Amino acid sequence: MSAAPKVVAFGGGHGLSASLAALRRVTSQLTAVVTVGDDGGSSGVIRQELGVLPPGDLRMALAALASDDERSQLWAKVCQHRLGGEATLAGHPVGNLLLVGLADVLGDQVASLDAVGRMLGAVGRVLPLSTHPIDIVADVVGLDPGDEYAIQEVRGQVAVATTPGQVVGVRLDPPGVEACAEAVEAVLDADWVVFGPGSWFTSVIPHLLVPGIVKALATSKARCVVTMNMSAQRGETEGFSPATHLEVLAAHAPDLRVDVVLAARRVAADGMTSLEAGVASLGAELVVAHLGEDQSVPTHDPQRLAAAYASIFTKGDSAWR
Questions:
Q1: pTM of this structure
Q2: Tell me: the pLDDT tens digits for 28-64?
């Protein structure tokens, strides 16, 4: 493998941004593939009114990859800046509007992302999971006070992420959504693919429900890392153990080949035996490292996460199953 491995990172929102902040320290041959199911906030308004991809998670990924020079960081700050006041555009990040405007001018949403990437001097490329918006639909139990086991349908990323019930499964609408062609090409050309950290049901698993991505993962020779979250997410995975996260991942993507599961020490300490069993059931290897900013805060530290990724990537194919 080359000194700079070709890496594709899947996700959305803050989880993907954390992963990208680490991965950019390891390789410049980096592609972020971003979910396009967001239906809340500025992204939700833009999506509903204009019928375009929700730009928020795409904007965040681009900002995470911005070069460190003063000019690029200024543009990243502008893209992340939310307009103030109480007018119609209040609360909209400038980058959201810029991405939509560029897509109108260029006639292509991927070209819009590439243009903003050049403006930011991005260390890598940002692509959408699909060039068409998707809806995330969940089966949830615990919402019916008369029957705690009754399954009810919850629709939309925000509703799924904040449900007071327990998510038991997710699917996409439309179910056969077409994958972004450039994202498929990136997977086929990758040395490594990375899933997580991030919202499990709304940012990680949706990628594994798109037929084109599933086929590309099965065809690619890329090795796969699953990075565990620091803690369960309130609403979406509340009460889940680390092993449960792996179980639902396998249930939604039974054909996914996982080579490495990366977990923080504080996560492994919560249930090492069950986590080891879950990792073994995937046919993967468990790597445990100190990944947090400190042991009490459930946040990935970019430098420590980068060191863990670098160690995994440089061990070579022979080190992993």
A1: 0.95
A2: 999 999 999 999 999 999 999 999 999 999 999 999 9
Q: Are 188 and 160 within 8 A, CB to CB? A: no
174-205 residue pLDDT tens: 989 999 999 999 999 999 999 999 999 999 99
Q: Where are the alpha helices (DSSP H) in the chain?
A: 13-23, 41-50, 56-64, 70-80, 94-106, 109-120, 157-162, 181-188, 211-219, 242-252, 265-268, 272-281, 302-314
Question: 207, 234, 179: which is closest to 12 by C-alpha?
Answer: 207
Could you write out the DSSP letters of every residue in 277-308? HHHHHTT-EEEEE--EEETTEEEE-HHHHHHH
In angstroms, what is the C-alpha Rg of the chain? 19
Listed in sequence order, the residues at least 6 apart from 3 whose beta carbon sits closer than 8 Å to its beta carbon are none
Predicted local distance difference test score (pLDDT) of residue 283: 95
Q: Are 207 and 177 in contact (CB under 8 A)?
A: no
CA dihedral 65, 69, 72, 76 (to 10 degrees): 60
Evaluated on CA atoms 46, 49, 54, 55, the torsion sign reads: negative
Q: Given a cut of 90, is residue 21 above it in pLDDT? A: yes
> Taking 60 as the threshold, does the pLDDT of residue 103 lie above it?
yes
Report the C-alpha gap between 213 and 227 in whole angstroms.
19
> How far is C-alpha 97 from the geometric centre of its chain's CA atoms?
22
The 3-state DSSP class for residue 201 equals: helix
CB atoms within 10 A of CB 1: 13
Count the helices and strands in the chain (H runs, E runs): 13, 12
Structure tokens at 22: 């680490």
DSSP 8-state symbol, 142:
S
